Amino acid sequence: MEYQDIREQVVQGCLAIQQKGLIRGTSGNVSVRSSDGTAVAISPSGIPYEILTPEMVPVVDLAGNIISEGKKPSSELPMHLMVMNARPDAGCIIHTHSKFSIILSIIGEKLPVNTIPLIMMMSPDPAPIVPFEFPGSPELGAAVVEYLGDSGHAVIMEHHGLLTLGKDLGEALTIAEYIEEGAEIAYYCRLADGKAKGIPDDKVAEMMKILMSGRAL
Ligand SMILES: [Zn+2]
């Protein structure tokens, strides 16, 4: 099978976001770029992840032309390709409908830097909120690219969900889990005392220096 490795990674990614509770049903999608950078495998539209096989995963070029047949690509293909084209460092893109991230976007609460992993994802925010646009639209793709900028790894799309990018599947997945963890913590903090609260700015700056230097905390 052509592009077997990236097709298998898409299946693996879809099963992972389902098992980790980051999506319900067939929502969400995963794309993985080939090592030569020219091809992108993306999850197909509407196929239950339990029955998804690598053969069903379509492969497209960076303009969206099918270069290896599978089922119909996800309706969010335009967004994935716009991000892949804007960010050559993106080897994998994950889109989830993560519950607590969606809640923060609906109540208009920016995800604070409230956990240690989020310090490494600041750019300057770990996951800025992208104002609502229709799913599958080029407007949504353009807004996501804008809010990711040159170095962001995650955005929360208002009323919709999360998009993360990483150099590979493992990194994109880990970022999706940490963002959702931070969002869940922020939500419960608000319930507990009305404030989402981040780590104090001076402590964040200090910890950033320690983490960047590779020293153990
Ligand atoms: Zn979606």
Low-confidence stretches: none
Q: Pairing-aware structural class of the strands and helices?
A: alpha+beta
For the largest sheet, list the strands in their spatial order.
Answer: 4-3-2-1-5-8-7-6
**CATH homologous superfamily label:** Class II aldolase/adducin N-terminal domain
What is the CATH topology assignment? Answer: L-fuculose-1-phosphate Aldolase
Total DSSP E strands: 8
Tell me the domain tally: 1
Strand proportion:
5-15%
| Estimated helix fraction | 40-55%
What form results from the Cα inertia axes?
globular
Radius of gyration: 17 Å
Mean pLDDT: 95
Catalogue the ligands. zinc ion
**Helix and strand sequence:** HEEEEHEHHEHEEHH
Largest sheet, strands/sense/barrel: 8 strands, mixed
The top level CATH class name = Alpha Beta
Supply the CATH architecture. Answer: 3-Layer(aba) Sandwich
Write a short abstract of this structure:
With 217 residues, the protein is of the alpha+beta class. Helix content is 41%, strand content 15%. Zinc ion binds next to loops.
Structure description:
- It is a single chain.
- This protein has 217 residues and is of the alpha+beta class.
- The chain is built from 7 helices and 8 strands; from the N terminus they run H-E-E-E-E-H-E-H-H-E-H-E-E-H-H.
- It has an 8-stranded mixed sheet, sandwiched between helices.
- A hairpin with a 4-residue loop joins strand 3 and strand 4.
- Helix 2 runs parallel beside helix 5 and helix 3 crosses helix 6.
- It is globular.
- Bound molecules: zinc ion.
- Zinc ion binds next to loops.
